[in-house]
Amino acid sequence: VEGHVQLVRGEERFAVTRAAGVVTGDRIAVSNSGAATIFLFDDKVIYLSESSEILLDGTPANWQVSLVQGEVRVASAGEGGVLLQMGKFKCPASRCVLNASLRDGHASIHVEEGQAIVSRLGANVASLGAGNSLQSTGGVTRVSSTVENKWQQRVLQYQLASADVLGITRVSMQ
Question: Is the pLDDT of residue 106 over 70?
Answer without folding.
Answer: yes
